[in-house]
Amino acid sequence: MRMSRDEGIRRVYDGPSHVVILGAGASIASTLRNPDPSGKALPSMLNFVDVVGLGDLLDPEENFESAYSRLHTQDPTSSTVLEAERRVADYFSGMTLPETPTLYDYLMLALRPKDLVATFNWDPFLYQAFCRNSKAGGMPHLSFLHGSVAIGYSERAHKAGPAGWYVDRACTDEYVPSRLLYPVAQKNYNSDEFIAHEWARLQGWLERSRRVTVFGYSAPETDVEAVDLMSGGWGDPTDRNLEQFEIVDVQPEEAVTARWRRFIHTHHYDYCTDYFESSLGQFPRRTGERFMHQFLPTTPEEAVQEPNPVPRDFATLHDLWDWHRPLIERENIRDGSE
User: SS3 of 174, please?
Assistant: First the structure.
């Protein structure tokens, strides 16, 4: 007999951890579903110059990262480089989530404090979703691998916080906005203390995680250093014979699995083009339990667990929170919070 949906809700284990890695495709999918109220579009590297308004500084026909890298190499303090950095930060700082639930809200509620979401995106959506959903239940940890307009860092206190806020009540130490742009040829993440900490967090989580989901991140050639760092945390895929790697991407399966072959042990991967068909959408807040039932079942029957798919179209955040409440209440009982 299959494990029922209700039994799946009641079963709560301490682990294993789930790591979710977000690329631009995640933010684009979120804004396609629920547009930014400001009307701003999320650019790709191909249309970046036009969308962000850099046409008087850079050639719209040239890839933005390549153009920025070339100019930064010539003179990192040139007026063109500094103005491009300012406009990029201003553009993304003006973006905000709509009041209606977005994919980022679903994602925050699909995970727990034992999990991690690491993002390559500069936009503030992940942090905004974290803040507005934290009142509903335990949220996952976050890492901002390329910085974010929402996050700043204090080198004196060695800690991150909301950009522009102060670390202390005396207002003597500010969370300075994180750096966003790096030359393509050598991003050298370790040269920035904040970014180095964010990468160290991801590597540590990858070492002990059992499930990884990559959502909308294509591992482009310009991110060779990033992929190497992730691979260093994950290790040799031949040693990860129980772990499951999941890819959510609109690109063809053959193309994306080829990009991630350094992380996939034989056939231990899942692929889908829709967030709601992923483990996060089918087993919210129980992806770790789903893993344990599938690979380490107490009985043969437990290897098959009924999914608990989250509905796609909640009208309000409160409706979304109400649906997740039975899951969160069961977790609170488990950890002694109630």
Answer: strand
